[in-house]
Amino acid sequence: MHRITKVAALAAPALLATALVATSTAANAYTINPDDTGFIGKGEVQTALGLNNAKLQDAVDKGTLTFTSTQAVSQAWSQDASQSGTQSGVQAGTQSATQIGTQAVSQAMSQDLSCTINGKNKTFHRDGERAGVRVGTATGTRTATRDASRNALREGTRTATRTGTLSGVVNADIDAKARKTGQWTGWNIQGITNKVQKMDGTPTWDSPTFSDGAWSFGDTWTPTGDWTPNGGYSWGDYQWGGYQFGDVAWGDWQAAPGDDPADCLRNDSVNGVPVVSDLVNNITEGATTPGEITPGEISEDPVVPGVVTPGAITAGAINYTDQGRSTGPLTTAGPLRLFVNGKAL
Questions:
Q1: Contact assessment for residue 281 and residue 113, using Cβ atoms and an 8 Å cutoff
Q2: What are the tens digits of pLDDT across the range 110-154?
Q3: CA angle (241 as vertex; 238, 247 as ends), nearest 5
Q4: Residue 71 · residue 336 · CB < 8 Å
Q5: Per-domain boundaries in the chain
């Protein structure tokens, strides 16, 4: 009986998806069945080792022949991935403001004065004008925008195919009866034992894949710029206070020749009887003529943040969250090969 070592890594040999089978061809005179039994031809061993019958018989007698096998295998692998990202956005806002304004005004005035002096009626009239001003407040609004960003994350996977070999010891015997007569033609393979799986280094990974719409986002947008107004304020009407007037600038009195309005304003009397009677002194406010409004200082309120319109996502670094794992059975990746004392059959 001869033994050979078979190597495999990271998966049990029993998981091979394809039977390790070799059939006799011109290049290899051996047959191996799915159950690891089979036959190795005598001539093939002689050819591999360069031995004649006598030397081969001597090697058999001394037990110096060792049969081994190798089988190329592969296995599917998978690895989880996560990718960070940043999504840009534009945030809308509304800003309110108040503005002080002043408005000048002019108002026509008239005064009528009449009285009776010594039984004689006297009348006087004059026109005038006074200037005034009023203060009001207008409220306005405008829109603004600013840039913002938020964190993003998505999950995915990447796959690889890892290759290796499955090696073992081939248990092979010569038929006892045939050996006694010297009429033996080869070795009967009883099985392959001591199977060892050895996978090649690091898997060769494909690019990771991420499902559509896989991004998840943080709840908070972070401003990345200052507010930029979208034009000027839209102002409402002024809410005015009352007018504040100065003194009246009067014109000349209109009176009969020789009459003086000051006479109606006398306080003297004769024998206790007032000289002036039936005194009437009326000042009449006329129409007002508003002037131009002079805008004043604007007091602005803080911008009230509104809705963010999401923009493009900038993908960042990809992190792999595990060392990778096998996701399928070992599969054969080439023919099963037999060796005798390290020489290929």
A1: yes
A2: 999 999 988 899 999 999 999 999 999 999 999 999 999 999 999
A3: 125
A4: yes
A5: 13-344
